[in-house]
Amino acid sequence: MTPIVIAGSGLAGLAVAREFRRLDAATPVVVVTADDGVSYSKPMLSNALAAGRTAAQLASADAVQVAAQLGIELRPWTRIAAIDRDARLLRLATGTLAYGRLVLALGADPRRPVLAGDGADAVLTVNDLAGYAVFRAALAGARRVAILGAGLIGCEFANDLAATGLGVDVVDIAPHPLGRLLPPRAAAALRQALDATGVAWHLGRTPRAVHRRADGHRLIVELDHGPAIETDLVLSAIGLAPRIALAAAAGLATGRGIRTDRLLRSSDPAIFALGDCAEVEGLSLPFVMPLMTCARALARTLAGTPTPVAYPAMPVVVKTPALPVVVSPPPAAAQGAWQEDDTADGIAARFVGADDTLHGFALVGAAAVARKAALAREVPAWL
Ligand SMILES: Cc1cc2nc3c(=O)[nH]c(=O)nc-3n(C[C@H](O)[C@H](O)[C@H](O)COP(=O)(O)OP(=O)(O)OC[C@H]3O[C@@H](n4cnc5c(N)ncnc54)[C@H](O)[C@@H]3O)c2cc1C
Description:
By secondary structure, the chain is α/β, with parallel strands linked by helices. It folds into 3 domains: 4-109 and 240-302, FAD/NAD(P)-binding domain (3-Layer(bba) Sandwich); 112-236, FAD/NAD(P)-binding domain; 324-378, Enolase-like, domain 1, CATH 3.30.390. The protein has helices at 11-23, 55-58, 63-70, 129-138, 152-163, 184-195, 245-249, 288-302, 366-369, 372-378; strands at residues 4-7, 29-32, 39-40, 59-61, 73-75, 80-84, 89-92, 95-98, 101-104, 108-110, 144-148, 167-172, 199-203, 207-212, 219-223, 229-231, 233-236, 240-242, 258-260, 271-273, 278-280, 316-318, 325-328, 337-342, 347-352, 358-364. The strands form 8 sheets. The protein has a 5-stranded parallel beta sheet. Strands 22-23-26-25-24 form a 5-stranded antiparallel beta sheet, sandwiched between helices. The protein is globular. It binds flavin-adenine dinucleotide. Flavin-adenine dinucleotide is lined by residues 7-13, 32-35, 42-43, 45-46, 79-80, 105-107, 126-127, 153, 243, 246, 275-276, 286-289, 291, 316, 319.
């Protein structure tokens, strides 16, 4: 029998394999991945430093163990070069692999800032376990770290690094941390809490160049205005670009991600997509809950029961122990306004439409965060 082939062994790829095996023990499943096939929880990468955890300690199973646990074939270090849709083949460096149905779970690449200077190539990103290992090794002897990007991942790393005793500078063009997710007062509360951990902010600024230097701190980050930052390491966390190149080259419909319908079916009915690489009915949601929801629905579809995915509101927990944050952002098209109320130790913000519909919320501080489940029930389903 021609196998179901899953491209990618991140949380999305392995979740589909696991869910499918619960429903069908017989159909062969092959997971092909460019990396080592180690299973790990990616969200842990941005709160592992203060806990003193190495990359090896974050790995829950290696490729051989994953294959045995799931009853699948797992091919690590196998990069897919092209998809031949007519022949239903993947082109690999080592030959070809036939698929009956193909699941693309290829993830996303970190966006790289455009920087001048002889230190631009020293800028690191952490988007997988290998990247975390490189970053952790580079921290040896460092006293300060500059983070480019004050979004979710930038703020989480800022909190984690500051908790290890390192000096942290955060640069962002936006005037507030988590500026795309939080309304102003909630963002200010988070900024204040991270201030107290020693984080220094360079907001409303754009990094222009990174220079190496021979003495003192190892690098200098030059900004469009304001004083330059002396630091030992630069971490970029300015966002993700879904990996769509393979799909686009094969003629599949792509937008921000690989476009699918609610059955997670691409423009080719034999090819499906989920996780960070996918755009499901126009929604690109690079978080764990959406991909797990997709994996369960897709497993049923692949096992013979077509199951459209349904997205309830899926609040995202921001891992900033200095001040707990939960956000359920309103859909881009939602009309309304933020209402921010004080709580005992933070802010509870609701994004409310003219008809009083709650489209989203942002909760900052433990008292507000306790309202997460109740508010999530009020928000209409996204899909
Ligand atoms: C630091 C960090 C913290 C995060 N924290 C949270 C959080 O707290 N909560 C939350 O909900 N989300 C969080 N996220 C997001 C979440 O982790 C991701 O949405 C999720 O892990 C994406 O999984 P994925 O399987 O789609 O992609 P990936 O994990 O990127 O997997 C992609 C796979 O595709 C393979 N691949 C790529 N190209 C090829 C090719 N050509 N051939 C073969 N294989 C290929 C790769 O090797 C890899 O195995 C965080 C992300 C990061 C980076």
